[in-house]
Amino acid sequence: QSVLTQPPSVSAAPGQRVTISCSGSSSNIGNTYVSWYQQFPGTAPKLLIYENNKRPSGIPDRFSGSKSGTSATLGITGLQTGDEADYYCGIWDTRLSAYVFGTGTKVIVL
Amino acid sequence: EVQVVESGGGLVQPGGSLRLSCAASGFTFSIYWVTWVRQAPGKGLEWVASIKQDGSEIFYVDSVKGRFTISRDNAKNSLYLQMNSLRAEDTAVYYCASPSHMTLHAFDIWGQGTLVTVSS
Fold it and tell me: What is the β-pairing status of strands A63-68 and A46-49?
């Protein structure tokens, strides 16, 4: 049972915007950096966002991250069929001395 | 090319042992904490264990404590996971993951994974 809660799925039509929430607590998200990972079926995860809102080179600016209080949000604008994947937030929880992944969210492009 | 490549997975009976390896290349492996992450079939990502640059600090998820041992050999740019007393619930794809020069706070480098199946 992860300490980071995400919605099981979000959906929207191509071109629209979706947001994925990652809800934690003041003892985890509240005092550390949040990362986001994208995973296609049968492949390894890929880093999408690091240090709350930074994008690795090669990641389109359609993807954005933010953090406020005990929650973080991944936004995807201009949704494309190629964005259909699972998305996970992740943090290092200093209280647990463990890295924690969120429960994961499947993005569905209608 | 920056990469990590896992090996050593396979089919093992409950109670058995397996040793996974991860070979790193193209980056300075020795300066990063490195990590094993697993994913059971149809499930989400689960962090398994992490080891400090010199091996002096190690952390495990509770479910593998006392059964799994993470280790590294910086001279060989390699990470290992010794898995003993394996259970059916350990069945998963195991990934080796590392930060990079870009950030120390996320896993930027991932291998393709190696499948461990625990079954009689």
Answer: unpaired
Q: Is the pLDDT of residue B120 over 70?
A: yes
pLDDT the model gives residue B57: 96
The predicted structure's pLDDT at residue A31:
86
Give pLDDT, residue A1: 66
Give the DSSP per-residue string, chain B: --EEEEE--EEE-TT--EEEEEEEESS-GGGS-EEEEEE-TT--EEEEEEE-TTSS-EEE-GGGTTTEEEEEEGGGTEEEEEE-S--GGG-EEEEEEE-BTTBSSS--EE---EEEEE--
Q: Contact at 8 Å (CB) between A70 and A30?
A: yes
Among all residues of chain B, which has the CA nearest to that of A37?
Answer: B107
Q: Is B107 in contact with A90 (Cβ distance < 8 A)?
A: yes
pLDDT < 70 stretches in chain A: 1
**What are the distances in angstroms from CA A67 to CA A4, A24, A51, A55, A71?**
13, 11, 10, 14, 6
* Contact yes or no for B59 and A2 at CB 8 A: no
